[in-house]
């Protein structure tokens, strides 16, 4: 998801309504434009570095066996980068306009674009992670079938199919299944849950949450199956050839990267998706959060509004963290970390041995 909700305000504002009739959120504390700007820069740098690194790895001969996986990583970094480029400038503009959405979007077209982008760039990493998990599971469990049926062209078609499906789903509110509106605290847009199209909005929101949770479930299950298969394979092969060891290193690296991305997706997205379904089942709407000082609201509603905003901000961190998982969880850095840990362990062991020898010598001298 994009940086919009992540950069929502934290601070206390007057309860008066803003100019031009825009409903302004009352939060706690001041958040300046420096926050969304900083997050945007970090996200752009991380995703661009990841794209460059993926391209270099893709061209390397030793990585031919993982080209499909690298293509998935490239798609993930590219969608995250596009999300940053398309959404972050809008958020920054809203801050510069003192969070008065109507000032920068009197025609409501920008809100529709923002809501569409939130949907597309929110579901994209979830779906791509699922494709990556399935791809690794097939590569480990059915290597011969995988080698003869899965290639870069097939992976490209799958990625295009995923993108087209998500774009079509994001257009549903535009063609009538719901309506994108400004959401509390006034810095982002998504489908409303309280207006004349309530049923259609709830249907869209429910499908969004269910699709996200299903993607997470597929990713987790496939990763567990892949890990179990890898452990069994390592136990069965005591001695391996050089090529088998190289394949094992490549597989381990890709699995670690996949697990890292999956953990981030689970941590960032599960709270929001579960809360969306809970709000639907309990018939709770965030529309009541608009335009009211939270300190005078019902305590239960105040808690729901605050928790939901926290969940949205957590989900928006996904684009920021995804590329750094790939950048940091690589064999080169992992080997360096292992060497450092080994050196520290040896150093501690040597110091313990020296200390034990010294104590033994002192004990002998005392007895003598």
Automatic annotation (TrEMBL):
Coiled coil regions, renumbered to chain: none
Keywords noted in UniProt: Cell membrane, Disulfide bond, G-protein coupled receptor, Glycoprotein, Membrane, Phosphoprotein, Receptor, Transducer, Transmembrane, Transmembrane helix
UniProt subcellular location: Cell membrane
GO molecular function: prostaglandin E receptor activity; thromboxane receptor activity
Membrane topology classification: Multi-pass membrane protein
Chief location category: membrane
BP GO terms, sorted: adenylate cyclase-activating G protein-coupled receptor signaling pathway; inflammatory response; intestine smooth muscle contraction; negative regulation of gastric acid secretion; phospholipase C-activating G protein-coupled receptor signaling pathway; positive regulation of cytosolic calcium ion concentration
Keyword Transmembrane helix (UniProt): yes
Annotated transmembrane regions: 39-58, 70-92, 112-131, 152-175, 202-225, 255-281
GO cellular component: plasma membrane
Domain G-protein coupled receptors family 1 profile: 46-326
Quaternary organization: Interacts (via C-terminus) with MKLN1.
Name recorded for this polypeptide: Prostaglandin E2 receptor EP3 subtype
């Amino acid at each position: 998801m994009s940086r919009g909700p992540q950069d929502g305000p934290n601070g206390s504002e007057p309860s008066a309504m803003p100019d031009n009739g825009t409903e302004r959120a009352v939060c706690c504390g001041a958040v300046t434009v420096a926050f969304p700007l900083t997050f945007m820069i970090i996200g752009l740098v991380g995703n661009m570095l990841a794209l460059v690194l993926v391209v270099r790895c893709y061209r390397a001969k030793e990585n031919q066996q993982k080209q499909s996986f690298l293509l998935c990583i490239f798609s993930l970094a590219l969608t995250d980068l596009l999300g940053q480029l398309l959404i972050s400038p809008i958020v920054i503009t809203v801050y510069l306009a003192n969070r008065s959405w109507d000032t920068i979007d009197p025609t409501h077209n920008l809100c529709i674009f923002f809501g569409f982008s939130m949907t597309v760039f929110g579901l994209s990493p979830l779906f791509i992670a699922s494709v990556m998990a399935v791809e690794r599971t097939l590569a480990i469990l059915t290597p011969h079938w995988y080698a003869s049926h899965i290639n870069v062209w097939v992976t490209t078609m799958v990625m295009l199919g995923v993108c087209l499906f998500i774009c079509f789903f994001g257009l549903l509110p535009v063609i009538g299944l719901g309506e994108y509106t400004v959401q509390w605290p006034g810095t982002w847009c998504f489908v409303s849950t309280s207006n004349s199209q309530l049923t259609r909005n709830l249907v869209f929101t429910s499908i969004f949450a269910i699709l996200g949770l299903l993607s997470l479930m597929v990713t987790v299950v496939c990763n567990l199956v892949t890990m179990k298969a890898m452990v069994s394979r390592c136990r069965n092969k005591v001695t391996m050839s050089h090529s088998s060891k190289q394949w094992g290193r490549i597989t381990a690296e890709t699995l670690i990267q996949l697990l890292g991305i999956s953990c981030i997706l689970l941590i960032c997205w599960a709270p929001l998706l579960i809360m969306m379904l809970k709000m639907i089942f309990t018939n709770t709407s965030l529309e009541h959060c608009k335009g009211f000082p939270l300190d005078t609201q019902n305590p239960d509603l105040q808690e729901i509004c605050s928790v939901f905003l926290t969940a949205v901000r957590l989900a928006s961190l996904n684009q920021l963290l995804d590329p750094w998982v790939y950048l940091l969880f690589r064999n080169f850095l992992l080997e360096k970390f292992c060497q450092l840990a080994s050196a520290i362990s040896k150093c501690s062991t040597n110091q313990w041995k020296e200390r034990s020898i010294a104590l033994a010598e002192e004990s002998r001298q005392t007895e003598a």
